[in-house]
Known about the structure:
- By secondary structure, the protein is of the alpha/beta class.
- Helices cover 46% and strands 14% of the residues.
- It starts with a helix and ends in a 7-residue tail after the last helix.
- The chain binds zinc ion.
- Zinc ion binds next to loops.
Amino acid sequence: MIKTLIKNIATMPLFYSYLINKPCLRIIMYHGISPSDNINPNDFESHLKELNKYFNIQPLSKACDLFYNNYDDKRPLISLTFDDGLKNNFSYVTPLLEKYKTPATFFLCSDLLSGDDMLWNHEMLLRLRYLKKSQGWINFSKHNFNNLTPKEFVKSCKSKSYSTVINLMQIIRKLSKEYIPTSIEKERYHIMSTKQAQNLPDLIEIGSHTKDHPILDKIENDKIIMEQVIDSKYILQDTLNRKITTFCYPNGNHNKFTDDLVIQNYQYAVTTIQGFCSLNDSPFQIPRIAAIKDTKSMMFSLLKPMRH
Length: 308
Ligand SMILES: [Zn+2]
């Protein structure tokens, strides 16, 4: 009851005027949006209608340029970011962004644009679920990690070394070679093709999300880290004929070495740390706010007091 009341007050225009004096930049972090995802296209359309009422929505680089240079417009700044370059971002998100003339930033992996690629963690999860239904799971789990569910196993891989994950992926692919994704799995997890990425309207800014989404601070070899951070930028620039100035750390992981590379090659970088961006935040470690399905709840989360 009280929660509903607060939510209703929070969505009143007057309440928003209070935001104007707070120098902060809000960046929303989206991933997949499709009829089979938690946030579906209707939810997203409702977000767009509400966000456009109260915020000055800009692509990430423009929003940061304005914010870090004494932005004093009355409308609070916000930026919508989409990680991973999922195909559903092309088929469901892009038409809605065009309909509402709303800019956004998509973070793409330069080497995952064949049209039927998936992020390694998505592919691993789906293949392990497939294996779990067969004898293959027994073989696999016996030799690897006992008693973990597929989801727990994939999560555990995010803290393993890059080479270990590559080896595990090879074993899993071999054991599950008959696996074919279902239409719902394709809708949720397939990444867009180069052609689709080339056809994204100018309204959408493109940023780099590495070459193939490794956990950067788990890579043992400096040369591979450099390729992931730097080459991804130039491959995307060449294939898409766009200027790439923004970077997104896969899973939010970074360290001193990756930070230095990002600082030398990009203007801004976002993490998965939850929060509003204040002027105290480094432009290379910008926090974000995870998107929420329910529009009122999301608008409420955008009004929470700033963390300081
Ligand atoms: Zn990602």
